[in-house]
Amino acid sequence: RVIEPKRRKLAEASSQLKEKQDSLQEARDKLQEVTERMENLKKQYDEKLRMKEELRKSSELTQLRLERAGKLLSGLAGEKIRWEESAGILETNLGFLVGDCLVASAFCSYMGPFLSDYRENLVNKVWLPEVRKLFIPCNPEFTVSGFLAKATDVRDWNIKGLPSDNFSTENGIIVTRGLRWPLMVDPQCQAIKWIKNMEKGKLKTIDLQQYDFLRTLENSIQFGTPVLLQNVQETLDPSLAPILDKAVIKQGGRLLIKLGDKEVDYNPDFKFYITTRL
Asked: Which residues pair with 229 in a beta bridge?
């Protein structure tokens, strides 16, 4: 009579406990689900923040590039006028090319031994009038230095020791553009200084008084390095004649030149400079 009611109460309490435990587990499951969703949303939020920062940096970089491009276009707008003027000058000079080349090639071939006054007189008072008389198109403002040398090259020559006067510039043109090896009368050693600076690090210097000058010359011819023969007198060693004449022969795909009593391979990069103080 006493135990049975208590058993019923225990069964009811156990049933209620199970219901509460089920409700608690359900709440826990929901909480876990919400927590996982929050973690996922937080990750998405962090990813969006990272993308926002990347887009901000990309926007700033693009804006900077646009500003630079605008400045460049603004600068090139001014260059367009200069380019059009240069193109017009080049087109005009193209029509004078035949006469200009004729006078310039004659200058390089024949004017080396003469002084500045004679060169100027012969070019301006003899050759150019004769060219125009024959109706060969020629630039009315023709100058040898303007036609055969760039201003940048002349400036570089001056930096390396060539005097800046027009006569020296013409000599530099003859030395660098002439087909024959140059002989430079150089009492003040200005040409030697210029050549050494121009061929710095590669130039071999020889003298006819040296016992092994032919060996040095032979190696330079084969490997294409420049040679400076200095302090020559009124006569030269006969063994140099093939070099001075550029008597190069082609044999079986090889370029050969006779030096002394043998033939050696000839490198087209070889350069030969001669100076004298006489």
From this structure: 206, 274
